[in-house]
Amino acid sequence: MILTVTPNPSLDRTYEIPALDRGAVLRATGDRIDPGGKGVNVSRAVAAAGHRTLAVLPLGGPAGAALAGLLGAEGIEVAGVQVAGQTRSNISVVEPDGTLTKINATGPELTAEESQALLRRVGERSAGVDWIACCGSLPRGLAPEWYAELVARAHRAGARIALDTSGPSLVAALRERPDVVKPNAEELAQAVGRPLATLGDAVKAAEELRAWGARAVLASLGADGQLLVDEGGVHYGSAPVAAVRSNVGAGDASLAGFLTAGGTGPAALAAAVAHGAAAVQLPGSLLPTPADLDTAAVTVTGDVPLDRLLTEPTP
């Protein structure tokens, strides 16, 4: 059982278009609406892989009701906390070459009472879970230390924590020693305050996060693969991708693959890479099933090419 926490979920509508032409009337060649939010996507990927999952999230207004309904239709149990604000709706526009343009709404502002209710709901439902995955940005009303409090409570209850967030909320939570953190290249660079140009730079940054408290770092580097830096050392994983259709939810699929494969070591890294590679070849925020995975194409090695340049170095 994997419990996910998404403090700022959304309804995600994705449009596929021939080209993004500002000021023009564009006709979509395909569109879909999906449950959104990083933790929500982790739950969807876990469920698609045939594992049990429970999604804890605030729900507000008709959009919140629609979100809960969509999750239920995918076989995901929802432990919602009703809030006064409206659950946000996001828009993604995808071009044929995989270029993604996103418009993310701010989302509701949670009150102090709603914030505490969300923490209590996690505590009420976390007994017996294998992992708690805390994912995404914090909505207005939640202080950067909110994730740190959640990690501390979860550890006191004996649960393992995976954290996928960025900025001050990531840095604040490190002191509570989350079991794994999952930044992408940009978030990793932001955390250490310097650009990353090579795989070696990414490894050093991940090692710094471990020195600050993270027990393991699973870093998604886009087309450059993924890194796992933990007490067992450094491992690098990659897989070929024929064509990128949409990268929405790819990092979340990677985290789901990692956790469902045990959440530790090279085998879990290989599962993360397979899930991420499959996700980018699917439309919208569709998440991969076991049939979509090409595990034979995944390469995982402890011999990391540290001098290899990143395809898109972080600014």
Strand content: 15-25%
Cα shape: globular
- The helix content, as a percent range, equals 25-40%
| Overall pLDDT metric | 95
- The rounded Rg comes to 18 Å
Strand order of the largest sheet: 5-4-1-8-9-10
Structural class category: alpha/beta
Distance between the termini: 38 Å
Number of strands: 14
Biggest sheet architecture: 6 strands, parallel
How many DSSP H or I helices?
9
Unreliably modeled segments: none
Q: H/E order of the elements?
A: EEEHEHEEEHEHEHEHHEEEHHE
Describe the model.
- The chain has 315 residues and is an alpha/beta fold.
- It is built from nine helices and 14 strands.
- It has a six-stranded parallel β-sheet with strand order 5-4-1-8-9-10, sandwiched between helices.
- Helix 3 packs parallel to helix 4 (146-156), helix 4 packs parallel to helix 5 and helix 6 packs across helix 7.
How is the topology of this model organized?
Blueprint: E1 2-5, E2 10-16, E3 30-36, H1 38-48, E4 53-59, H2 61-73, E5 77-82, E6 88-94, E7 100-103, H3 112-125, E8 131-135, H4 146-156, E9 160-164, H5 167-174, E10 180-181, H6 185-192, H7 199-212, E11 217-220, E12 226-230, E13 233-238, H8 250-260, H9 265-279, E14 299-301
Parallel strand pairs: 1-4, 1-8, 2-6, 4-5, 8-9, 9-10
Antiparallel strand pairs: 2-3, 6-7, 11-12, 12-13, 13-14
Helix pairs in contact: 1-8, 3-4, 4-5, 6-7, 8-9
